[in-house]
Amino acid sequence: MTEPEPYKDASLEGIEGTARPRDKYQDDPFGNEEGNKIQYKTLTWWQTAFIMIAETISLGILSLPSVLATVGLVAGVILIIGMGIIATYTGYVLGQYKLAYPHIHTMGDAGEVLAGAWGREICGFAQATFLVFTMGSHILAFSIMMNVLTNHALCTIWFMVIGTIISFICTLPRTLKSVSHLSIASFASVLAAILITMIGVGVKGIRPEVELEMTTENTFDKAFIGVMNIIFAYAGHLAFFSFISEMKDPKEYPKALFSLQISDTILYLVAAVVIYYYTGKNVASPALGSTGPLLRKIAYGIASPTIIIAGVINAHVAAKYVYLRMFRGTKHLGAGSLYSNTVWVVILVIIWVIAWVIAEAIPSFNNLLALISALFVSWFTYGVSGVMWLHINKGGWFLNWKKTCLTVINFGICVMGIAIAVLGLYSSGKAIHDQDANGLSAFSCADNSQ
């Protein structure tokens, strides 16, 4: 037999450019969908962009004004812009890796390419865990919202249960195109809520008691919690492989990526600076609580779609990972049978129950976001893309000055991921350890909106 013809995509030149034989890594995750009752590869680039925006610009933006209060205005602005630029580059590398290995649908698939079976299991488990933790943060935000809207009319535990049930129902459709229509409402709601908050604090003007600090002195762990909250705001990368898999034309992914990164970086910067400027170091987190009592309720009411839908998108990606692991390559993947639908529902029930437990166990909004960032975002948004670039360019790291510069940059991204993970775990672990001393406790009926 002759050797397989080497595969090389010209669109990868300058990122990978490395030839390799045709093999199982050429396979599309959903295969030929002709005749299937449920078809997945239906997203246009703009629908993908809205899903990415809805998944990324959600809870992260609500913590950013308080980050400026923690690290100072100057450092906060530099971090928001800097992390946004790096996140754009790392997101682009993920797209190139997907083109090089079309079969990739999850970080677990990418882990298999990088490190075999162990890599698949470790990365797949980490991806599912990250998504479930993020779902938990949305349940927590839902309970805060309900406490604000109802003046704590019900035990917080019950609000979390209600939020879990609503989110579960919204996750029942099996294709991302079904969710894409909701994502438009999600983005519109968070944008409107942030605008109302900015207008609300602006109308009140700068009060005499408001203190603005260009730079601050703080303990390392508290300052790094702020850094981790900025990192969480760019935490959408983990789901990008899944989104690309359901695009009609994956080569249009960069359009969706740049639409996302331009939108989120500008919105993060404007919202954080304006709200902090008018509220000072006593700004609330989530930021919607920084206005007066009436506007606070209006802002939370308008933000309710994004609080629910962004969590639903994460749940959808987590459930799809498990579902694909079970049925990839079988007739059940594209079937609408009672059996396949029942399995989908059971998966959703399990992951939403776990997310509810996480939300109850870590009742501090900022601490939960910081823990998620340290455990997962440090790698999935930053470190792992550096590893992927080095992998697809193996043997050509120092071919020319351009490749040498990119090699240094990507090695630096790997080191950055490790540093964020280690320092973030220390800071968030200490903050969670101290939360009881600050009046927060797990599985409590107490009002968590104060």
Question: How would you summarize the topology of this molecule?
Answer:
Layout: E1 6-7, E2 20-21, H1 45-56, H2 59-71, H3 73-100, H4 107-150, H5 156-170, H6 176-204, H7 220-233, H8 240-245, H9 253-279, H10 293-327, H11 338-361, H12 365-392, H13 401-433
Antiparallel strand pairs: 1-2
Helix pairs in contact: 1-6, 1-9, 1-10, 2-3, 2-7, 2-9, 3-9, 3-12, 4-5, 4-10, 4-11, 4-12, 5-10, 5-11, 6-9, 6-10, 7-12, 7-13, 10-11, 12-13
What is the CA-atom radius of gyration, in angstroms? 22 Å
Shape: globular
Mean pLDDT: 82
| Spatial sequence of strands, sheet with the most strands | 1-2
Strand content: under 5%
Helix content: 55-70%
Helix segment tally: 13
Write the element-wise H/E pattern from the N-terminal end onward: EEHHHHHHHHHHHHH
> Based on the structure, what is the oligomeric state of the protein chains?
single chain
Question: Class by helix and strand content?
Answer: mainly alpha
- The first-to-last residue Cα distance is 71 Å
> How would a textbook summarize the main sheet?
2 strands, antiparallel
**Number of DSSP E strands:** 2
Task: List low-pLDDT spans.
Answer: 1-25
Question: Any key phrases for this structure?
Answer:
450 residues, mainly alpha, two-stranded antiparallel sheet, 2 strands
Overview of the molecule:
With 450 residues, the chain is an all-alpha fold. The chain is 68% helix and 1% strand. It has 13 helices and 2 strands; from the N terminus they run ββααααααααααααα. It has helices at residues 45-56, 59-71, 73-100, 107-150, 156-170, 176-204, 220-233, 240-245, 253-279, 293-327, 338-361, 365-392, 401-433; strands at residues 6-7, 20-21. The chain has a two-stranded antiparallel sheet. The termini are far apart. Residues 1-25 have low confidence and may be disordered.
